[in-house]
């Protein structure tokens, strides 16, 4: 498990992360969203042991990550801007990683290069951007780490590749309990793959939850009554948003769907529709509830 | 151990700079082989390595003199371009190795590796050292093998080892500063500027300080203080630029040891800085804003201290204002060059006053040091001994005076004289007197030694040499001598071995002289010594020239030459003795005539003055007498040829064709270095027959 | 046979639960039969294994499946009964729906016929198998 406690990170006077707290459980596929400059890459660098926090602690498996080769050898970070050794091919990079990481698997490396259709002896400098991303992903997966961090990597892969990578990740989660963190701009993308989601904004984790919980905890209720009514009728029901036109009210409700449905049904409505929300809608309403306008964030 | 070094990273690091490393290896080996190859192609005729050829027109010699790292004697390290290449490549290698610290993506990549920073650093440094040492060893060994294969120079294992160590330490020394510069900065520009600063500033600053202090403080002895260790000719990077042949490195191993220790310390410092470095410094000219200020101020201070230095040395002159401007320019330029933003440069101006504070501090420190020097005022009872320093080796004078200079003196009277002189100078008592300069070293009872350059009244030295303790020393004559020369004269008696008589004669003359001298009064002795001293290089008259070897408690043994001019008013018996032995012109001529028959077929030696020295001609006596009629040449004009016949030296004036006629063959003579002793017997300017007195 | 619609607003794990229950009810998965491993399902359906695990945990808690440490997940012996128990509360939905229909004036027999029809169809399907 990766644990960040009260982590603060500064660049001169600019505070990138402010007293951030976050726990990433084992075997989890953790999605991290945030606008550009929110601190996603900074956060990943912190937990990879590349940066040292100004305040707070970062531990993995109970030990601090900074300057800890034992722990760092279980972590593989694929950054947003990739770097390969100059004039190297994938075999050279694989040799380096094999030398430095005990868990590197040459077999998997060969499998993946074959599957992805990349030539392992071609100069990586000649690859396209997308191919470079694939190369970096292959190398990272071949390391077979316990912790795998993808910094906006998926955004650059085509759907076929994305799917292939996902398969590998899923397989690793099942077999070795790999923990994966993926950052992205796109909620849609993360929704498919991740089981935990967090929103990073203004240097802190604003929002963190299990995706399934996210999707089920909030739902939309459209209800109409014969008589005139107002918001007060729904006291006792946790409402994030309330809109009414005439005799039809639209509520965004947090709670157990069946319970709330029963509650409202008991009020003898003329019309009752209970609809699930998609992830973006959930985010919007949660953010509004927290006082942010979502468009400011994304 | 595994924590601190990784074999795999080391191999990776070796590979990382392999292009540059191979380029370095090729370049330096080529430079190192160029000279032996040239030497071989030109010098194949050289048979005997004992002679040193001295002819400026000979290209081979001038090339080899200029370029080769001579591998003959250990002291003989000449100016060598391959060392320049080494000094260039060493920091470049380190720069490339650590260039990842200057770009964010690379920096993140290396910092993400599961190794401790110390491990990464040490592995990389080890790789750099391997490339450097490897290049040095390979190129030097090839050079050595080639020289020895051609039998052009001899060498010993220790010589080669010494050279290897020296070259390797030199490369490590320069490389270490680049390592430190790379780990405390984050951009190429700032790294290079930091490297220049770290390498040059300490020595440059101390040099400026030292020069200013010496200019201000007239009582310091320039070459003997601690700070002389900091001059550029004792800096491993530049010391060999002039072909540091005589005072070679190994006669001063301090330079080598210091450089080795310094390079290890600097490497360690760089490792420490790498360890504490924030990864996000990559791509920024300094790790944080505060340090950027510090670096800028330090760099500007380097330019700034030229200002107080110039003012101390020359006063306020026009160009001083240029230097003032320079400070502003450097300050602003540094910021622009490293950060490249005008706004940042404008913001940095708020600290521009700091370099001027440094200027004041510099000037202040010079004044303080000066005051400290003047405040040192030992009393006579604090001084254990004094010694008079002959710093430039140009003290002429008699044997006794040399002895005084060689040995320190513990006599209270002399000490009191010296201490009074020091006090007098400190109190500026001698301002209106005629003064001489003298350098005195005071050894104090507490172990300290103070060297002072004093301007003392002219009677100071007289008081010293006539003091009870030193008077006998001053007037002493050498008890034994290694060699004695008295102006040569032909001996008319030709019975027995001329040479033997000649040597015996010299000893008798000397003994006579000694006994006469000892009976002189002090004043008369002083006169003789003064007269001999002031005689300069006029060699006519009777002059005894002595070569003496004397042990000293400060310099080991010392070889000195002394002259005693013999005048009839002081040493009449000696002069008479010499006159009696000295023949007239006719006696010489007839003696030489007599030699004709006796020396027929004998080899005689002739030295004929040429443009660059003396030509040495071996010929036979009959050839000489056949081609040269000595009577018409002997006492005419300015002699230009010295002939030795049976231990007798005769100066004559010969024409070129006469000289050539003496040659056994038509070969062009080879110029050699003439034994100086022979030349000094009678320089061409003098005529042969001289009367003493 | 499990079909997951990723674009549906219904959470994936719910879809999995329903899918498995459907397979058990239709006999595709027999009682006491071993369920495909999470890994298998994850790779086949391209779904996050944690999501599948969540579904399995739910099913286990409801008693529909039994998890045996080290050996995998098995359909419970009385799985059908358990599922049936889960469905029983849904009768309330029918009641509510009926109330709506009644309120709209729909004929009672039509509703009852529909219910009977559904059960009859199911019987036919069962006998076919």
Structure description:
The complex is a heterotrimer of chains A (298), B (693) and C (129). Chain A has helices at residues 40-48, 69-72, 90-100, 106-116, 129-143, 159-176, 187-193, 211-217, 257-265, 279-290, 294-297; strands at residues 2-11, 14-24, 29-33, 55-60, 63-64, 75-78, 147-151, 179-184, 196-201, 204-210, 218-224, 239-245, 248-254, 271-276. With 298 residues, chain A is α/β, with parallel strands linked by helices. A 6-stranded mixed sheet of chain A has the order 6-7-8-3-9-10, with helices on both faces. Chain A is elongated and about 75 Å long. With 693 residues, chain B is α+β, with helices and mostly antiparallel strands. Chain B has 4 domains: 7-26 and 81-139 and 156-217 and 227-287, no CATH class; 380-474, no CATH class; 483-580, no CATH class; 583-692, no CATH class. Chain B has helices at residues 7-16, 18-43, 59-67, 81-97, 104-112, 117-149, 157-184, 188-216, 253-276, 289-304, 306-314, 318-339, 342-348, 353-375, 399-406, 412-426, 459-465, 468-475, 498-518, 522-534, 572-581, 585-598, 621-627, 630-633, 656-661, 676-681, and strands spanning 383-388, 435-444, 449-457, 483-486, 542-552, 556-566, 603-609, 614-620, 641-645, 648-652, 671-672. In chain B, strand 9 (641-645) and strand 10 (648-652) form a beta hairpin. In chain B, helix 2 packs antiparallel against helix 3 (59-67). Mean pLDDT of chain B is 76; it is low at 44-79, 244-249, 488-501 and 665-693. Chain C has a two-stranded antiparallel sheet. In chain C, helix 1 (12-25) packs across helix 3. The interface between A and B is medium-sized, with 25 and 25 residues.
Q: Kindly report the spatial arrangement of strands forming the biggest sheet of chain B.
A: 10-9-7-8-11
Query: Could you give the order of strands across the largest sheet of chain C?
Result: 1-2
Task: Count the DSSP helices of chain C.
Answer: 6
CATH topology of the largest domain in chain C: Arc Repressor Mutant, subunit A
The number of distinct helices of chain B, counting runs of at least 4 residues, comes to 26
- Cα shape of chain C: elongated
Fraction in helix of chain C: 55-70%
Q: Helices and strands of chain C, in N-to-C order?
A: HHHEEHHH
Strand content of chain C: 5-15%
Helix content of chain B: 40-55%
Beginning-to-end CA distance, first to last residue of chain B: 86 Å
